[in-house]
Design brief:
Elements: H1 5-10, H2 15-49, H3 53-58, H4 62-105, H5 110-113, H6 118-131, H7 133-157, H8 162-210, H9 212-217, H10 221-269, H11 280-302, H12 306-320, E1 339-346, E2 355-362, E3 367-371, H13 378-385, E4 393-398, E5 401-402, H14 408-413, E6 415-419, H15 429-434, H16 449-458, H17 462-465, E7 468-471, E8 474-477, H18 492-506, E9 510-514, H19 522-535, E10 540-545, E11 556-561, E12 564-569, H20 571-577, H21 579-588
Parallel strand pairs: 3-10, 3-11, 6-9, 9-10
Antiparallel strand pairs: 1-2, 1-4, 4-5, 7-8, 11-12
Helix pairs in contact: 2-4, 2-7, 2-11, 4-6, 6-8, 6-12, 7-8, 7-11, 8-10, 8-11, 8-12, 10-11, 16-18, 18-19, 20-21
């Protein structure tokens, strides 16, 4: 239960709307009990009054009839208002929970999240948070409203007979306290099974959608569809088990209500207050007892969903309660772009080392290349400079200050990264370029169009300015044209050029290139490198590469092997002194 406390504390932000929803829920239940009680009394009293002409003339039909109409309208109105208030509060609570979860998630580094699959993370941030709406709608509101209604019912019935009121309310309080525990025990395993099976099903769906191309190429669609059917069957089985528990719990509540009605008929049959025989008041007491089923019935579902809420809270807390492995400082001034790495030791696992005592210096304004075989630690080094990971030992400094002293905004704004895999969002050309520009609140959407257009021409993507796409909003042209999910409407070379365009828009003092031309033909590769080198003038540039294209233009080239730098020098020096570089040069041809 302690897992739910952080989420319950968030509810205070919506206390007003939640209180309105609770008040209207109580009003609805009280109006329902009052309507049935008054109707029972009114019918009984009318029947007795009709026994003689004198009592019929003396009986007031209008006041109780008006009361019945008033309670009917009040119940309908309060029910409608309750739905509006409780669901409005729920939607706002879910918004608060998502914002809170994202704020907890964003500071986490790759090391914090390395054990989580993308589908599982998505499920935690969407499905598990949605599950927590049961905490308000099906647990807190029904339980609190039931308890308050029992108190109000006692106050009303004790006006006629304190003993009968105490007997009924004692039974209701006992059911209120005991039955939820029974329902929680019964629904614990099915509730957790529903959450787990939903998670497995959604993660598998995401895997199948993302890997559709590979599954089709290797004729594995049928096998994975069977896995989906099995996961779906598991979900249906757990939901069926939960439905059986729901039916059983409702049956128990109906039995308790029936026992309460029988008890009240027996007790009220002996007299109600000073009325012996009880007359119409007996009908009022019995009908009031019958009406309590509306108050007690939501309890059957309340604690069934508690196990699912606890499990969802646990899964969310596993992410949100982590302490970020990478902590940023408060320094906002970057003196220069001189980068120094001293005695760096790093590994993704405690028992493995990717970098072992590596030392590297990138002087301000220099162009440095890092060459080495796959898995030697080149990309890991880049991840350490961008603070995606933290070295286990050693120091990284920029401008003479430890990199951990800078705040995140300063560090991010000082670097431009062009990787071998450019991520394009499902949006327009403008959307995918504008993310490289600093965000200014209130700035008009088309304020930077001239700059975006110039950059597209600079990287050789003029064709995109005249391209057309048809969407639900009609035909869109140029910067408004849709590039599809992951940029599917662009070629690989065009996607890389988008990455270069982002780098041109960014214009940061440090330029980090991670295989920016991998998989491209030589002509396109040279064009992109030419653009990047023009961008790198006056900047500190570090490029990771497997190939030797443009190595002659580098101020320094470092060969890395087994997590350490083995040879350093410019192109001509390494040709003369490094056997590894000579071998690489002969194998790849004279591309330099």
């Amino acid at each position: 239960m302690k897992l739910l406390l952080p989420f319950i504390k968030l509810f205070k932000r919506q206390w007003l709307m939640m209180s309105v929803g609770l008040l209207l829920t109580c009003t609805t239940i009280i109006a329902g009990i009052g309507l049935l009680s008054l109707s029972g009394w009114f019918l009984s009293a009318t029947a007795i009054a009709g026994l003689t002409a004198a009592t019929a003339l003396a009986f007031n039909f209008f006041t109780p009839a008006g009361g019945v109409r008033f309670l009917s309208i009040a119940r309908t109105a309060s029910r409608y208002g309750e739905r509006l208030a409780t669901h409005e509060a729920t939607f706002k609570l879910l918004t608060e929970l998502r914002v809170w979860s994202w704020k907890k998630l964003l500071p986490l580094s790759a090391s914090n999240l390395q054990g989580l699959r993308q589908g599982d993370m998505l499920n935690r941030l969407v499905a598990d948070i949605d599950t927590l709406d049961h905490l308000y709608l099906r647990l807190l509101v029904p339980m609190t409203a039931s308890l308050l209604t029992v108190v109000a019912l006692y106050a009303f019935l004790s006006w006629f007979d304190a003993y009968l009121a105490l007997s009924l309310c004692a039974l209701l309080i006992t059911a209120w306290a005991v039955l939820p525990l029974v329902f929680y025990r019964l629904g614990r395993e099915p509730g957790e099974a529903v959450v787990d099976s939903k998670r497995s099903f959604r993660v598998l769906i995401l895997d199948v959608i993302q890997g559709q191309a590979e599954l089709t190429l290797f004729s594995a669609n049928d096998r994975y569809r069977q896995k989906l059917r099995d996961a779906e069957l598991s979900l249906f089985t757990s939901q069926t088990a939960m439905a059986h528990i729901t039916g059983l719990s409702q049956a128990l509540l109906i039995m308790v209500n029936g026992a309460a009605v029988v008890m009240m008929m027996y007790l009220a049959g002996q007299g109600v207050g000073d009325s012996v025989p009880p007359g119409p008041l007996m009908a009022m007491m019995v009908f009031a007892t019958m009406a309590t089923i509306e108050m007690m019935m939501p309890i059957s579902g309340a604690f069934q969903h508690l196990s699912g809420c606890v499990l969802a809270a646990k899964r969310i807390s596993e992410v949100t309660e982590q302490t970020p492995d990478v902590a940023f400082g408060t320094e906002t001034h970057l003196a220069n772009a001189d980068i120094n790495l001293s005695n760096i030791h790093f590994g993704y696992q405690a028992d493995t080392k990717v970098l072992s005592g590596l030392n590297l210096h990138l002087p301000q304004g220099s162009k440095v290349a890092l060459l080495g075989a796959t898995g030697c630690g080149k990309s890991s080094l880049l991840s350490l400079i961008t603070r995606e990971w933290q070295p286990q030992q050693g120091q990284i400094s920029i401008g003479g200050r430890d990199i951990s002293e800078f705040d995140e905004a300063t560090l991010r704004s000082s670097m431009t990264v062009v990787s071998q895999r450019i991520h394009l969002f499902a949006g327009t050309v403008r959307d995918n370029l504008a993310i490289a520009l600093p965000y200014v609140e209130g700035q008009k959407r088309r304020a930077n169009d001239e700059r975006l257009t110039a950059v597209l021409k600079q990287v050789g993507l003029e064709a995109l300015l005249s391209s057309k796409t048809t969407t639900d909003r009609g035909e869109e042209v140029g910067l408004d044209s849709w590039i599809g999910e992951g940029g599917r409407q662009l070629s690989g070379g065009e996607q890389r050029r988008i990455g270069v365009a982002r780098a041109l828009l960014r214009d940061a003092p440090i330029l980090l290139l991670d295989e920016p031309t991998e998989g491209l033909d030589k002509r396109t590769e040279r064009e992109i490198l030419r653009l990047l080198f023009s961008l790198a003038k006056g900047k500190t540039m570090l490029m990771i590469s497997h190939r030797l294209t443009a190595m002659a233009e580098m101020d320094c080239i470092h060969m890395i092997q087994n997590g350490q730098i083995t040879d350093s020098g410019n192109h001509q020096q390494l040709i003369a002194t490094s056997a590894d570089y000579q071998s690489l040069y002969k194998h790849l041809g004279k591309e330099a």
